[in-house]
Design a protein that fits this description.
The protein has one domain. Helices cover 33% and strands 30% of the residues. It is built from 2 helices and 5 strands; from the N terminus they run βββββαα. By secondary structure, it is an alpha+beta fold. Strand 3 and strand 4 form a beta hairpin. Strands 1-2-3-4-5 form a 5-stranded antiparallel β-sheet, covered by helices on one side.
Amino acid sequence: MTWEIAKDAPHPSEGGVVVCEEVHPYGARICLEKGCKSAPWAITCGIYYRLMHTTFCGDETIARERYDEMKAELERIMELDDDQAYARAIEHFVDRYPCFPALG
């Protein structure tokens, strides 16, 4: 299954301007914002009822790369059907994309 552009109104959660917002039919959403209150770029994502996470970036190129990486990893997580593996994957995801990495 592939990601689709969100058809409803954009959901800027970090006070920026939505550049791209996509939804996945398995139940996930991801949003890229620029000009945020806390950093130049933010990526907010979630797997419905399971995960809500935001990471910030200082550079557009890194933000766009991270956005694509996060989409792929969210897809892998949603395919897991073992609860313990799912929980470990979410923990790994949050560790890999911390809220405030060195803002590269």
